[in-house]
């Protein structure tokens, strides 16, 4: 791992066991390592240093987690819940891919909020929704849940801060520490929510991320909408098994590990450049060819019974006889 100025590095004593030099790094194909879902809810709550190992077992996160479990069958969209750092914004709720923020949800509000927003898909009757924009990057730093995320996450976060600042993207990219996202063995783990060239928001998951991957994630995924397939775990909205198919179909022969996303069916991140100029390329999908079907004449190609053959022959013979008689009659006149 290259040394980076002003970057907090992993102590050598921890790097080989919990950090980026541990033996399990890159030992597994991580494509399709997330379950299919269509909506992601983040509850802003305290700071990672104060989180329990299972942060969803206390306070506001517990209220949301309980309702999600008890009323799972009432939800039309499969929903995933995570906690992210709150600080002075405790109680705010972010919803993706809707790109909506609700402020100041209290414990006593959760049931009504859940009914209005997550079950019925309507604005919360007791609060005002706020539209959010740009790119959101959530890095798992849940140390009390797993040491690997606790060691790798903060280092990745610091590299993101440095690179975002040097590129002047602080007003376009929101960076948050979040709770356990699943599969600690893939640390560093992160999720990027970003609009593609068509404006569609998707959540792409990455694992085995190191600080050296951060510039590529910014320049390729966020800026150009190109998936970094060697560390890609999957995408929000893809049905079960589809991520693996996409991964296999999109592997580039030259091995550079970059997969360009298409706005139809497989979408990813793209930031807005300065002065509102998009850095995405226009990738309008070509229309599928229309298949034309001719008229079906199945009756003439069905096998006939012997009786039907005889009857047919007799009818044809009779018609021929009448035709000949009519011709002879006309000539005789």
UniProtKB/TrEMBL annotation:
The protein's name: Sucrase/ferredoxin-like family protein
Alphabetic keyword roster: Membrane, Transmembrane, Transmembrane helix
Transmembrane segments: 309-329
Domain of life: Eukaryota
Keyword Membrane attributed: yes
InterPro entries the record matches: Aim32/Apd1-like (IPR009737), Thioredoxin-like_sf (IPR036249)
